[in-house]
Amino acid sequence: MDVLDPVRLSERLRSAGLRATRPRVAVYQALADLGGHQAADDIYECVVATGARLSRTSVYNALDALEAARVVLLADAGPGRRLFEVGTTWHHHAVCRRCGQISDIACAVGEKPCLEPDDPDWGDIDEAQIIFRGVCAACRLKDVGEPR
């Protein structure tokens, strides 16, 4: 996770044409404090727990702005709630079929789109996401008593 300090966060937002507003900074800090892959409602609860007075709508709007500034990534883990994570480095995800754990997986290419379809009708692809699914090491350990 590549967390930005407040100065670099402000610079990054300004370079994306955005201001470093109190809601944006609070949402970014809450997501950084929570770590991992978080739903907007979980981020909202964390922000409110700090005593900040923000509406859910403000949290959703801040997440959209932070994603547009590319300081927060949408963590695609398949169907369900949208998940966000602090970061600026493009990567993929692995999801455990048993416990639901989500892990970051480095992109072999390192930048979007990583893959290009072999279809002439889709020549202008800007993003490809890979979701690996399987059983994580902790679940395998529970099954057999030792990692594979």
Commentary on this structure:
The structure is a single chain. The chain has about 150 residues and is of the alpha+beta class. The protein folds into two domains: about 5-85, Orthogonal Bundle (Arc Repressor Mutant, subunit A); about 90-145, Ferric-uptake regulator, C-terminal dimerisarion domain (Dna Ligase, domain 1). The chain contains five helices and six strands. A three-stranded antiparallel beta sheet has the order 1-3-2. It is globular and about 45 Å long.
Q: Quick gist of this model?
A:
This protein is an alpha+beta fold and 148 residues long. The chain has helices at 6-15, 22-34, 40-49, 56-68, 137-144, and strands at residues 38-39, 72-74, 83-86, 91-96, 102-106, 131-134.
